[in-house]
Design brief:
Blueprint lengths: L1 E10 L2 E11 L4 E5 L6 H9 L6 E6 L2 E2 L13 E4 L11 H11 L4 H14 L16 H15 L3 E5 L7 H17 L4 E6 L11 E6 L2 E2 L2 H21 L2
Parallel strand pairs: 3-8, 3-9, 6-7, 7-8
Antiparallel strand pairs: 1-2, 1-4, 4-5, 9-10
The structure holds adenosine-5'-triphosphate and magnesium ion.
The site of adenosine-5'-triphosphate has 13 residues, from helix 1.
Length: about 240
């Protein structure tokens, strides 16, 4: 479904992604875990077409994303919730959610149907719809950014550090929403990044460990996963 074909990318001539090779299958939730500065955001931005590749290709169901302009990602069914959530402050939350669908020319009925699914998955948004995009707390903004990514993300949803900074109760709600999403849209592919893998609890079907722009080989990744599982047990206790 999503195929990283030996991709490398530079920022200001410094290598930031180095030979990333991975395949993420349809219907799976794939976590990309790595320390600050490891290259997680850059990887998602490369999928979005905001960071040019020096070499390699990213394929979505065989389509070379490098040949599709960045502004057409939504048309391909790719939704993106950036690390720094950006809600338009002069629009209501509902307008913020509808906007990307309107930009790609979906009909009113199609947008209504997407909104209904989004509210089913993230019911916390119902009470926020009429509020200004500027009036949300950090956690509410993360929920709204998730919802906005779902509005167009019919094939692939990219979430950049969604759990970072969320209070435990909100993190639990976010995790429940991700589980509902997998039930309602079982064919969807979701890529979630985190610096602290234990925040993801048992959500991922697969974990890719990234270090200095490169994926750890499976053996090292498994060892890292094993050592983080003690944190996972600890963090589970934080979610009543
Ligand atoms: N606009 C930029 N200008 C200069 N260097 C950058 C820029 N964006 C990213 N980098 C560098 O690229 C590397 C990877 O950054 P990236 O933001 O992808 O990491 P990350 O894993 O998302 O980190 P974090 O957990 O802090 O979000 C870092 O060394 C960072 O300093
Ligand atoms: Mg980042």
């Amino acid at each position: 479904m999503l195929h990283f074909e030996n991709i490398s990318a530079d920022i200001l001539q410094a290598p930031v992604l180095r030979g990333i090779q991975a395949e993420v299958s349809q219907g799976s939730l794939c976590a990309v875990v790595g320390r600050n500065g490891a290259g997680k955001t850059t990887l998602l931005r490369a999928i979005m077409g905001f960071v040019p590749l020096r070499s390699g290709r990213i394929l979505l169901d065989g389509t070379d994303l490098g040949r599709v302009p960045a502004h057409n990602r939504a048309r391909l069914g790719i939704g993106y919730a950036p690390q720094e959530r950006v809600m338009f402050p002069t629009l209501s939350v509902e307008e913020n959610l509808r906007l990307p669908c309107q930009v790609i020319g979906l009909s009113r009925a199609e947008v209504d149907a997407r909104l209904a699914l989004t509210l089913e998955v993230v019911p916390q948004l119902k009470d926020m719809l009429a509020r200004s995009g500027a009036a949300l707390s950090g956690g509410q903004g993360k929920m709204a950014a998730f919802g906005r990514a779902l509005m167009v993300g019919t094939r692939l949803v990219l979430l950049d550090e969604p759990f970072q900074g969320l209070a435990p109760a909100l993190a639990a709600q976010y995790g429940d929403a991700l589980k509902r999403l997998q039930e309602r849209a079982p064919e969807l592919c979701v890529v979630v990044t985190e610096s602290n893998g234990s925040l993801l609890r048992d959500l991922p079907d697969r974990v890719l460990h990234i270090e200095r722009g490169a994926l750890l080989p499976d053996q090292a990744a498994n060892a890292a996963l094993a050592s983080s599982s003690s944190h996972a047990t600890f963090s589970l206790e934080a979610y009543p």
